[in-house]
Design goal:
This protein is α/β, with parallel strands linked by helices and 258 residues long. It is 47% helix and 14% strand. It has an eight-stranded mixed sheet, covered by helices on one side. This is DUF2520 domain-containing protein.
Length: 258
């Protein structure tokens, strides 16, 4: 049974997940981070020990949660040598098999959300995607997920990778578009607040209808005059212009013959 947890990583995701697990009754024993300040900052919030050296990592936890960047995971695994311990990572794009050579009981505990330390989140609304190499750990991870979230899903590594790809489109790329919109308004002395009701309504519509059906704008109806005028306005920003043209063509081809 999982009761005592060590977090390896103290970033955005680790912070939110550690707080949620503590609130659910789990004992966070220790937080490891490369820097003492980041380890201590999270550790204080969850009444845990902190460390920034591999030698000081506690070996008496029931579960070790790796909340690290994809490229950092393998070197840390190699350095820690946690053979025989239960290990999970929290990444969307890394396969379960990354643990094959390091222990006998391992899994994935992937919360699908964008995390920032400064923003509070209700973890009960965050989907938790789980995978494990054995039924016992799978059951324990499902229980842990159910204690903090109303949505727990069993997904294979392939499914989770596809989900992560979809999340990049719907979150990261969309947020980049927000930045471009903000820049275009700022150049003319306008405030980004003007776009916020539109952003909210766009997000609300896809809660009630397919995204394709919710699509509006000049590209859907292939309004060449408007599209050309927009491209002309972007002539001094060739990267934005190229992006505008590419996305407009993608929307048009999807809806052609509608």
């Amino acid at each position: 049974m999982i009761k005592k947890i060590v977090f390896i990583g103290a970033g955005n995701l680790a912070t939110h997940l550690a707080l949620a697990l503590k609130k659910a009754g789990y004992h966070i024993l220790q937080v490891y981070s490369r820097t003492q300040l980041s380890a201590e900052t999270l550790a204080k919030q969850v009444d845990a020990d902190s460390c920034c050296s591999y030698e000081d990592l506690r070996r008496d936890a029931d579960l070790y949660i790796f909340a690290l960047s994809d490229k950092a995971l393998l070197p840390v695994l190699q350095a820690l040598q946690l053979k025989g311990k239960k290990l999970v990572h929290t990444a969307g794009s890394l396969p379960l098999s990354v643990f094959d050579d390091f222990t006998t009981s391992y899994g994935v505990f992937y919360p699908l959300q964008t995390f920032s330390k400064a923003r509070q989140l209700d973890f009960s609304n965050i989907p938790i995607c789980i995978e494990a190499n054995g039924s016992d750990l799978e059951s324990e991870l499902i229980e842990m997920g159910n204690r903090i979230s109303n949505s727990v899903q069993l997904l294979s590594s392939h499914q989770r990778k596809q989900l992560h790809l979809a999340a990049v489109f719907t979150c990261n790329f969309t947020n980049h578009m927000y930045h471009i919109g903000e820049e275009l308004l700022r150049e003319e002395g306008m405030d980004f607040d003007l776009l916020k009701p539109l952003i909210l309504e766009t997000a609300l519509k896809v809660q009630e209808m397919p995204a394709k059906a919710a699509q509006t704008g000049p590209a859907v109806r292939f309004d060449e005059d408007v599209i050309k005028a927009h491209e002309e306005s972007l002539k001094m920003q060739p990267d934005f212009q190229k992006l505008y043209r590419f996305v407009s063509e993608s929307i048009y081809h999807l809806h052609k013959g509608k």
